[in-house]
Amino acid sequence: MEITQIKIELKEYIEALLSPEIEITDNSTLEDMNVDSLALVKLFVFIEKKFGVMLGEIGIRKENIATFGKISELIFDNKKD
Amino acid sequence: MRLPYFKNKTYLSGIDWIISAIDYYLIRTSGTGNHSTLIINLEKKISIKDLDVRLQAIYQNIPVLSGNIKRDKINLAPYWYCKKKRQNTYQIFEHKCENKEEFETLKFNILNEKFKFCYQHLKFNIINGPEMYYLLMTFDHKILDAHGAEMFLQLLNKSSEEKIIAKIREIKQTNAAKLINWQKKFDAGRDIQRHLIQMSKNECETIGSCTIKGTLKNKCGQAQESLTTVYTEQETKVIKRISEKRAGFMMETAFFLAVCTKSINSVLSENKPLCHYSIPMPIDMRGNSKGLKKMLRNHLSFMFLKIEFPQKATIEEISTKYKHAILNEVSNEYPEKLQKATRLARICPLGILYRFMSLSMKGKVCSFAFSNLGESNSVKDILGSEIKCISHMPRVPTPPGIGFFFNTFSKKLQFTVIWNKAIIEKNQVNAIVNKINECFKEEE
Asked: Which of A14, A37, A54 has the most B C-beta neighbours within 10 Å, making it the best mutation to test the interface with B?
């Protein structure tokens, strides 16, 4: 799966879950996207189910998930094909 | 202007019925129901007349606010019934107080005061003193949940009846839980039941001899007391930093749970090598709906979190256990399943339902009540008076008899502990709060 496809699916999920008031771009932060701690857990579960990426096992650092672009890259780098 | 349409009969959801069961139990064990009080600290005095005018406009246009639960003999599903004749069932009181002690006494009385009659679900107390102005809004959880109550404040801010009606048009009545898809509800119920049985294998810690039997024997005089701590913006930043360091990025809920568990454990169960803690955590299920659309009634579900607590566990270790428990709940979709499963529970009379709820946990429902509401940002002022802070003060059933509630307003963290005076001493609660505050300080 290409990174553009990952971004499309991730964006669709975030928009459906949280309806952020802004247009999601690579630089959108978690705060911009209305992601709170519970939404973050839901996002992790979605990523695990959809892309097979176990974020809990990789070990999440703030800098890895700070923006939409970073999360997409993290999925792309760790996804199982 | 044409009035917004409200049906005078709508069926309750399963969660509404669970909330009503807690109300039933609280009334029978403490005399006062499942209500909560929003304590709003204001910049300046507000006018009782102005508040009354706006409330009248709201009540005349939302008759649901003066309704109550009802159940027919033939049709078992309970419903919310409102009379065709519109009534203003709210009450407003104004008090004067000279100092902080008087304010605390007033607050204590308001927290423990029951509603005057069954169709009343909202009560307002304006308290003014030297340099302190408060509005206390007591609301019944049968009609509003915590987020719904904050949304209600938005309505109060509308300056004229036309503006209030325009806002009321956004409100939708909660959809009836449809009497279809039985198989899905049964499956969800089976999964929840298995989950609860699994959780009840190890008895969880509760305060003292706080069992249902003990509580029922001691019916009267179970007043609840509260203690609120408001942290400054700077202190909140420090707490967030500590939370990130010890529990991970954006994991405040797991961190607060860990801090409360460790603190309560150090005061109440210090000698056991291994304890189990069980916490039902309410979560808001409104999802992406904005505005007042889902203001009325309950849009909640619960996560049932159970952790093992070895005596020497650190905050980091406990936070990790809670994070795993939360992840397990979300990935197995237990909150969604609970919403479906509870629809079947609506055929149960309230008394039996509460018995069922506690029986599945062998009488020890949970160790403590907990919620983290996050940022309360829907309203910044009321009737022209700027809000300094808002804290939530819900009543807690016994067991557990103690609850910890967090919310943030204007980037300031508020923390309220509520406890049943009959089962725990104030000095013990002070010790727990001190322990919590120690965890909120950076190590030197």
From this structure: A37
Query: Which long-range contacts (C-beta less than 8 Å, at least 24 apart) are formed by B291-295?
Result: B291/B170, B292/B151, B292/B154, B292/B155, B292/B167, B292/B168, B292/B170, B292/B171, B293/B170, B293/B171, B293/B172, B294/B148, B294/B172, B294/B174, B295/B144, B295/B148, B295/B151, B295/B152, B295/B171
Does an H or E element contain B126, and which? strand B122-129
CA distance B54 to A57: 54
Q: How many residues does chain A have?
A: 81
- Which residues numbered 55-114 in B keep a CB inside 8 Å of some CB on A? none
How confident is the model over B176-230, as pLDDT tens digits? 666 677 888 899 999 998 988 888 888 888 876 554 444 444 444 568 899 999 9
B2 part of a folded domain = no
Beta-carbon separation of A41 and B249 below 8 A: no
List the domain range (segments joined by +) for residue B16: 10-168
**pLDDT tens per residue across span A34-62:** 888 888 888 988 998 899 888 766 667 78
Are residues B270 and B407 both part of a single domain?
A: yes
Side-chain-side CA neighbours of B439 within 13 Å: the count stands at 27
Which of B109, B144, B168 lies at the terminal end of a domain, its last residue?
B168
Note whether B129 and B277 are same-domain residues.
no
Q: Is B326 on the interface with A (CB under 8 A)?
A: yes
Name the interface residues of A facing B (CB cutoff 8 Å).
16-19, 30, 35-38, 40-42, 44-45, 48-49, 56, 60-62, 65
Taking the C-alpha atoms of residue B318 and residue B259, their distance in angstroms, rounded to an integer, is 8
pLDDT digits (tens, 9 = 90+) for B88-129: 899 999 999 999 999 999 999 999 998 998 899 999 999 999
Q: Do B299 and B411 sit in the same domain of this protein?
A: yes
Rounded Cα distance between B408 and B256, Å, is 13
Contacts of A22 in chain B (CB under 8 A): none
- Count how many domains chain B has: 2
Predicted-complex ipTM score: 0.84
**Angstrom distances, CA of residue A33 to CA of A23, A24, A37, B244:** 9, 7, 12, 19
